[in-house]
Amino acid sequence: MTTSMTNKQVQTLKVALDLDKNGKSSTAVEKYIMLGKSGLTWAFYSAAIKYEFGNGDMGQNSELALKYYKLALESDRKAEAMHSIARIYSMEGDFDKAFEYYTKLSKLENPLSQVGHYRLGVLYYSEGLATSSDLEKAIYHLHNSAKMGNIWALRGLAEIESKNGNKIRAILLNLKALALNVKYVCVDPTNPGFRAL
Fold first, then answer.
1. Which of 188, 132, 120 is nearest to 155 (CA)?
2. Digit-coded pLDDT (tens) for 134-175
3. Cα–Cα distance for residue pair 31/16, rounded to 1 Å
4. Where do you find CATH 1.25.40 in the chain?
5. What is the pLDDT of residues 71-128, one digit of tens each?
6. Helix and strand element counts for the chain (H, E)
7. What's the distance, Cα to Cα, between the start and end of the chain in Å?
8. Are 98 and 90 in contact (CB under 8 A)?
């Protein structure tokens, strides 16, 4: 999906980056959108980030962020855009839409698919998305994410094991997470912190 850039596109990108650097994000976004419309669809992702988080001289606008993330789905930033769309829907409480995009993300051949699995596990476990079989689905997705190296998925599995009375298994999962050399993982198997992420 990556295409070579014309001289005009290179110059437009340089201007956008310079504007961004100098706190003129609203004008930079116009340039990113112009680049996206000229065929560089990855530039829509840059515009969407600015709308989602606000930056420089512009505030947040999740509606426009969603619009440009969706346009970026046609670029080599597809996984990142999909993750961002799902995150926005989740933060807005639209768990059906979040579920839809996290499911799509989990099926991609991309390192971010582990995030899709992790967030699906969290949705099934802590948001009560469907039925009592959610626990099995949560475990399935957390396990897949953990296999890909997501330490928070290991923490989630540890919490489930702890709540099911399997304290030793919970401690072993936490130790496995610690072995991944992440200094901020807590070994307390009763800590529900993984849901807060």
1. 188
2. 888 899 999 999 999 888 899 889 988 888 898 998 888 888
3. 6
4. 1-76, 95-197
5. 999 999 999 999 999 999 999 999 899 999 999 999 999 999 999 999 999 988 876 5
6. 10, 0
7. 32
8. yes
The reported pTM is 0.81
Q: Which residue has the tokens 């505030």?
A: 59
- 8 A C-beta contact, residue 45 and residue 81: yes
Contacts of 62 (CB under 8 A, 6+ apart): 51, 52, 88, 92
- The type of residue at 89 is Y
CATH class of 1-76: mainly alpha
Q: With beta carbons less than 8 A apart as the criterion, state whether 131 and 155 touch.
A: no
Specify the CATH architecture of the domain 95-197: Alpha Horseshoe (1.25)
